[in-house]
Structure prediction request, 648 residues.
Amino acid sequence: MVLSQKIHEAFKGTVERITGPRTVSAFKEKGVLSVSEFVLAGDNLVSKCPTWSWEAGDPSKRKSYLPADKQYLITRNVPCLRRAISVEEEYEAGGGEYLLDGADDDDNEGWLATHGKPKEAKGDEEENLPSIDTLEISKGKVVQSIPSYFGGEEEEEIPDMADFENSENLVETDPATLQPSYFVAHEPEDDNILRTRTYDVSITYDKYYQTPRVWLTGYDESRMPLQPELVLEDVSQDHARKTVTIEDHPHLPGKHASVHPCRHGAVMKKIIDVLMSRGVEPEVDKYLFLFLKFMASVIPTIEYDYTMDFDLGSTST
Amino acid sequence: SSSSSSHGRILQFAPFQSLVDDGFWRRLSSLKLDTLGVDQSPIPITGYYAPCSHPRVSNHMTLLAESFSVVPEAPRGNRNRCPVPGVLLNTNTLPSFRTLDRESLLQKEAKKILEDICSGKVEEDPGVLSSFLVISYADLKKWGFHYWFAFPALVLDPPASLLDLRPASEVLSAEEAASLSTACNKWRSSTLTADIPFFLVSISSNSQANVRPLKDWEVCQGDGQKILYGFYDPCHLPNNPGWPLRNFLAFIGLRWKVGRVQFFCYREKHGLADLGLSLIGEALVSPPEAWRDPQSVPKAVGWELKGGKLSSRFISLAESMDPERLAISAA
Prediction:
């Protein structure tokens, strides 16, 4: 962690200790959530998208302002069938990207919406893609190449296990066991490189920014943990190392990649404004559905299950 | 044994895959440093799995920090975390890890499963059918962990032969499928049943499906009801059921003496029953007579492969656990 980041973390910790959690709704005004609104929105997510569940987590890391059994949300084993870079190339080819925040595209701080239906966002998609057709289009983003992880240079820590393997006389010749070549995950066609990673995606409440915060824990194609650095291959390259950082998870051990929440409130506010300008009154318990659609612009290739159709609020027509 | 049966092909099961969260190794490390010392007694643990929820990726048996709390005290009622009892054998040295008699360890676990089948324990606590074993060596100086999973499966001889296997939506009538979806979603949303991975489906002559616990088996008989033997299938493949079905078939054949078994591989999409992904199959099962002898030791398989070979796995957590490295990266 760089020094400025550490100082900020310390400052943030102090502020969190001395300020009480937000209890009054500033959902529409600021795009933020109180603790109880977070729990409400989490309950709704769990009931509508049952692959998400609440976790109690490690008791020693428990936040007193959240219910003991509702410390954070998690969905496990979410497939990521290809690297974000290949998706970005497709969108480049398909005619460009959609910027959620058109204010400052020069310094790349806008949010890219690389999900959705870029070429033909039709009328019936509008409820689900709240801001897509009001967005500026920015072209010519530089696509960086990503070094291949699957070269196998990671092996240096692993002692030679050859003796161990060969000393075994227990070779299982069992006709009822499906042989391994068949049980790897199904890969996209015309591609003989294994690319299926899986992710545990968790959502915590960030008391300082008063918004949810998304964390990614990755596993490679043989279900071994991915170094957080490699997780950056699966986030939009405009966000890798900028809005997506590697930090301590508040409930889980170790470093995890996380979408930094410093601009979440502002972007959520914009999405809410777009909805309201269309006569949709956003409801606070739907916050996480909106939020996850927004997150999909940062992590476009991780296929979590929020893509079902939901009414995002009540329409006042 | 080239061909076991004149009807159908050998039913092949996709092996369980393991996944270990860093939190598990951290908890083991502190347990070893603070409590266990050099004690190598087997440690009861809890693994978690859920039905396959994506058409392209199987689910796994997962170990978490919470895995050191034991079934039935382990968190229950979470539909995405069905608890399965396991045993961890953590050795003190790498040589002792490497020289463990894995064959007899596997047989011992398989024998326990057979005992649970014969005693009726399975009806009370169906998760024991998927009991598993992990052997490990934790190198706490280098923060490296060697480990190897076994998912013991009783080997039927002759193997079960497959008569039919198709998506559930093709086997059932539209009415039956709709009723079964509803019944499964109800079972999966009640905290009392959500994490119970083996169950019965009864379909009445008027196409109404019910999901019931295994202990209702006798009640389900008669009345012209069709019985399906259901389980949470971690496997995503369209032509093979997952590993938990192996011991389930042995149980059905041995305990209930059913020779022709209609089974139901329950799979989900977006957390809800998906009968297009779920499979219904029919298999012929004949458990060896020898298994009825309480002293018998069943043949078993199940050591997990790594890259297609029998091999242990290794994970280094030095990057995130070694205080020296942490100090350097923080400086």
Chain B has two domains: 10-157+292-330, 161-287. Confidence is low (pLDDT under 50) at residues 1-5 of chain B. The first strand of chain B starts at residue 9 and ends at 10. The longest helix of chain B spans residues 102-119.
